[in-house]
Amino acid sequence: QLQLQESGPGLVKPSETLSLTCTVSGGSITSVEHFWGWIRQPPGKGLEWIGSVYYRGNTYYNPSLESRITISVDTLRNHFSLTLTSLTAADTAMYYCARRGSDLLAYMDVWGKGTMVYVSS
Amino acid sequence: DIQMTQSPSSLSASVGDRVTITCRASQDISNYLAWYQQKPGRVPRVLIYGASTVQSGVPARFSGSGSGTEFILTISSLQPEDVATYYCQKYDNALALTFGGGTKVEIK
């Protein structure tokens, strides 16, 4: 059974850079049918799609975050990563990684449990 | 950018009631729409994709309808375990997988 697990620091200082990793187990990140992405949710608020990556390295970013984010994939380690720069308190959120399909199956069908990130000095 | 607007933002209904949640897209997205359920403190899970296809394992009381710009999630008989926030998401464009604002469902 496919599982995703986020990892990273729980606390980051303003203006610094956040790095998160999502490790995929029970399946291969090189699946030709799937993309891998990040979603975040500030406390008490709704879901925001951050971006996605394909195993070949193709990336798709939320235009509102594009200038600050990089999503990369490591097929050898079967994981993908998110880097978010110039952090502010507004980036405090639960960060989820998720798998999505393509075309009419391009919804998020498998999610990680999430990792809470606080941006504070 | 295509905006996704859900209504209502919250609702309270009795056990056994039929509940409907609407999601409107500002432009035509065909049937590239999914519905997710997020119970308090839990991870979102997909209920419906392709606007009307029920994900495996989802109770039959959940259904989806619509295409183009208007979509509806229906819970035919509300159960206590359905207390959650429900989100729609469009996925017609890989560069804009936008979520709606969410609808919080409570038991009266």
Describe this entry's structure for a reader.
The complex is a heterodimer of chains A (121) and B (108). Chain A is mostly beta strands. Chain A is built from no helices and eleven strands. In chain A, strands 2, 4, 5, 6, 9, 10 and 11 form a seven-stranded mixed β-sheet that branches. Chain B is mostly beta strands. Helices cover 0% and strands 48% of the residues of chain B. Chain B has no helices and ten strands. Chain B has strands spanning 4-7, 10-13, 19-25, 33-38, 45-49, 53-54, 62-67, 70-75, 84-90, 103-107. Chain B has a six-stranded mixed β-sheet with strand order 2-10-9-4-5-6, with no helix packed on it. The mean pLDDT of chain B is 96.
In short:
By secondary structure, chain A is mainly β. In chain A, 0% of the residues lie in helices and 50% in strands. Chain A binds chain B through residues 35, 37, 46-49, 52, 60-63, 96, 100, 104-109, 111-114, and chain B through 1, 31-32, 34, 36, 38, 43-46, 49-50, 55, 85, 87, 89, 91, 94-102.
